[in-house]
Amino acid sequence: MRFVKATGGWLLLVFLLTAPAWAPLTAPGWFQSHSGFLPVYHLDDLAAHGRWGWLPTLAAPADFWRGEGPLPYALARLWLPLGAAAAIKLTLILALVVGPLPFFLAVRRVGGARPALIAAVLFAYLPSTLTAAYQRGALSEVVLMALLPCLAWALHRVASQLSVGRTLTVIVLMAALAWTQAGLALLGWLALSPLALMAPASGRARRVTWLSLALGGALGLLSRFAWQGASAAVPVAFADHAVYLFQLFSAAAGFGLSQPGWQDQLDYSLGLAAMGLALLAWWPAERGAITGAAVHMGTWRWAWALIALMGLAAAVIPLPLGGLLTYPWQTLGLVGLALCILAAIGASRFPQLQSWPLLSICLTLIALAAYPSLVVHRTPPPSRPAPLAIYRTVGQETDRRRDGSIILADMVAAGKLQAGQVVSVTLTWQVLQPPDFDYNLYLHVLDANGQRWGQADAQPVAGQPMTQWAVGSVYTGAVAVAIDAAAPSPLHLAWGLYNWQTGARLPAIEAVP
């Protein structure tokens, strides 16, 4: 009860100030992202075929370190009665809501309430997290970034007062991180390790804290190793996707995919608000202004600066982390976390920044600076619990396989499959990678023996070649096919995509009859 009285008002303030970060997810329907409908399909697949060893692998093979784990979808399954799309969005909302709250509590224990408020609001509006949610549709990364502050708070609680319950909480959270995205979770554990030292505690409490960290991490990784189907997939050319320095300061919030070189449109910004406030950790303060908590936090600013620099080096140089991550810039979320803590250290050194007038202006500017990252492109939700087919293409730039590039989301036939009739078929498409060729659609009417009694060959969407399709957008096209008057019964439809220059058909890595 004392905890609620002491922190309830602050937590409510954090909740209200960070509401714009998750408000776009409350709109009806679905939203355009690089992962398209896959999160929805994965959740429905878990509900239909969930068993020991399930992994979200409809469009790509399992990957122990780089691939998604099952935990985010297991959480979303709790809300499945609301519908799969609503359940995924609710899980994203909860992750964006929950993350800043324990982050505030963790920083408040060592730095005070108002510096912690700045840090929590900065954390909620980190461009890397908002890009992961709204542009990339990376459910696992958003959940992971919400669990890291929970672990930080749990570490402080263990260090302040040893108990079995608090120690078990650290172990469970550590293990849970491995079930989101194991490679990024491992780097997150390393990034949070200084918190075990920052909290004022006895030597025994610190040893127990470190032991619980190690035990939880080991349990999480060992349990993932035992998970069925956890084989490695072929990654992209890791070093080719390194971030250029100017992209860290860019104010442009694009929607494009990560591309080799400097002309891609994905947002890699660290956030000018986070970087600016983090610099206050080294800005000369007035003599006598730095006392108490500010002194204690200031002693650890070099540790957090080193973590931020290591994360930047991993993204820009990049460091050889291709075995853990798909892209170098995935470390920018951990850089943002370190910058938020440095911002709290800086705010604690300047009491004038903690006055309510200046604090209000600062918090408002943080929220306004994140507005470009909150622009969401709406699309209708998928009408089926599973795609009709997921087609694989081979890119022109490399020979690397593009798993799950084109989704056939739905197909509706109007008319009777009978001799002499004309059937109009409406197909709904979505691409997860820019198509490397303007593929054509073939639609065949076949009898039980596979003999063809009608066919149509055309662009999937008339007047819109596939190479002009935007990733994550939904496209609908109609094709009519005439059935031969001598056709027998029964008849059925067969469809697919093919290269009209060579006649080669695209393989379907997932197909639902």
* CA-based shape: elongated
Helix-strand topology string:
HHEHHHHHHHHHHHHHHHHEEEEEEEEE
Strand content: 5-15%
Structural class: alpha+beta
The total beta strand count reads 10
> Order of strands in the sheet with the most strands?
8-5-4-3-10
Evaluate the radius of gyration: 26 Å
Number of separate domains: 2
Number of H- or I-type helical stretches? 18
Q: How far is the N terminus from the C terminus? A: 57 Å
Helix content: 40-55%
Main β-sheet: number of strands, strand sense, barrel status? 5 strands, antiparallel
pLDDT under 50 segments (min length 5)? 396-402
Task: Give the averaged pLDDT, no decimals.
Answer: 86
Written description of the protein model:
It contains 18 helices and ten strands. With 513 residues, the chain is α+β, with helices and mostly antiparallel strands. The strands form three sheets. It has a five-stranded antiparallel β-sheet, with no helix packed on it. It has a three-stranded antiparallel β-sheet with strand order 7-6-9, with no helix packed on it. A two-stranded antiparallel ribbon has the order 1-2. α5 (84-98) packs parallel to α9 and α10 runs parallel beside α13. The model is unreliable at 396-402 (pLDDT under 50).
Keywords:
single chain, 513 residues, alpha+beta, Immunoglobulin-like, 2 domains, five-stranded antiparallel β-sheet, three-stranded antiparallel β-sheet, elongated
Show the helix and strand layout.
Blueprint: H1 2-17, H2 19-22, E1 30-31, H3 38-49, H4 71-76, H5 84-98, H6 100-111, H7 113-124, H8 127-135, H9 139-160, H10 164-177, H11 182-192, H12 195-198, H13 203-225, H14 272-279, H15 293-298, H16 301-316, H17 332-348, H18 356-369, E2 378-379, E3 389-394, E4 401-414, E5 422-431, E6 440-446, E7 452-458, E8 474-482, E9 492-498, E10 508-511
Antiparallel strand pairs: 1-2, 3-4, 3-10, 4-5, 5-8, 6-7, 6-9
Helix pairs in contact: 1-6, 3-5, 5-9, 6-7, 6-9, 7-17, 7-18, 8-9, 9-10, 9-11, 9-13, 10-13, 14-17, 16-17
